[in-house]
Specification:
By secondary structure, this protein is α+β, with helices and mostly antiparallel strands. It has helices at 28-38, 68-81, 92-105, 112-118, 121-130, 161-169, 192-206, 209-212, 274-291, 347-355, 389-393, 431-443; strands at residues 16-21, 41-47, 61-63, 86-89, 138-142, 173-177, 187-189, 221-226, 231-240, 243-251, 265-268, 296-304, 310-316, 329-332, 345-346, 363-365, 369-375, 381-387, 398-403, 410-411, 422-428, 446-450. The strands form six sheets. It has a four-stranded parallel beta sheet, with helices on both faces. Strands 5-8-6-7 form a four-stranded antiparallel beta sheet, with helices on both faces.
Length: 457
Amino acid sequence: MRGAGCGVRGAGCGVRVLLLSHTTGYQLRAFNDAATKLGFELVFATDRCHKLDDPWQDRAVAVRFHELNESVHAIVERHLRQPVDGVIAVGDRPVVLAARAANAMGLPWHSVLGALASSDKRRSRAALHATGLPSPQFSVLSASSPDIGFRRSDIGSRTSDIGSRISDIGFPCVLKPLGLSGSRGVIRADNRADFVAAFDRIRALIARPQVRSSRTGLEDRILVERYVHGREFAVEGVLTRGVLSVFAIFDKPDPLEGPFFEETIYVTPTFLDADRQARIVDHVARGAAALGLWHGPLHAECRVTPEGEVYVLEIAGRPIGGLCSGVLSLIRSQDLGPGSGPRPSSLEEVLLRHAIGEPVNDWTRESQAAAVMMIPIPARGVLKGVSGADPARSVPGVTGVRITAKIGQLLEPLPEAGSYLGFIFAKGASPRDAERAVRDAHAKMTFDITPEIPVNR
């Protein structure tokens, strides 16, 4: 490996990492800051027009995530001129291109099949079910199926193939677009009327031009699965040639029971006992292997039933999204010796080290509890102003408040939303203290959102 002998002594050692992302990805700056701190050079590959001459002035490789062959060719061409030592990707779509590119360059990363499965709920569900992990019964429906007429009469009718499948799954159930991430488009249905409304709402969402422009091939598919009762948890870690190292298990203290599933707060360490933590880690590791995820970041979502059964909902071959990674400060055992205080590193720093082949199994989350709130959007409308940010920052335990929505931006809540208003970070002596801090900070903030002005066409 080029530069492997120089560790992280500075830019002179020539360590270079390829980072694939959407142009507007929140995490680009975090990775750039981490690379600067480590002395690494980042080579960006982002979705932009290849006909424009470096519009962002970052010398990035212009790629299109729906044109994999051409994009891999462009990346390999740059690699031949400027060899990279590792690969990392941010976001579900970039993970697939990263897998293809890493394979072409002979660098370790998730398998192509694993990347595809992690970004396709149908493939993921089938793989988890096949490996014997607890998995809800599911079916995949076409949003444009001519059979959809059954909805207006009798959803449970056995005369319709779709009606038969829904009847087999039963209520409550959850409908999800196959190709969207997070909680976008995820709706619970408790009865036939709920199902009709949810199906129509998702169909309208995936018909939007900005959704269809992604051209994943999944835009016309809706997954329906049996609802799993229980609490949700998230796992953040990294796979090293198939071996999982876990950095944190997050509790989601707000009940996520539907009809929409807005993730608002992550807090760590988890309240779960050691046995249930071990079961979560075991199920995520087995699930990652079943999908074909092998080497690189991992973010998983799980639900634990009241009886203690662990259901893996999703496993992504990428780090936690948005700015949520700021909730993690990682340290390694050698930094905890006598006379030396811990030197925390960001998740991005550790993932960059991992990308060039450094061992990261001795990195762990700092002992202090931490929480992050993804500030929810309360109503559809245009953001006119934000007040109370400074009082929110003054709340004991709060370590940061970041407003990412722009003044004048059209906002909409889940299930259509694809973003948040911003993020609040806090630390505390206990998880409850950290959680209380982000809630108290949020309570001090006011968001002026006015209804959009309808345009007559």
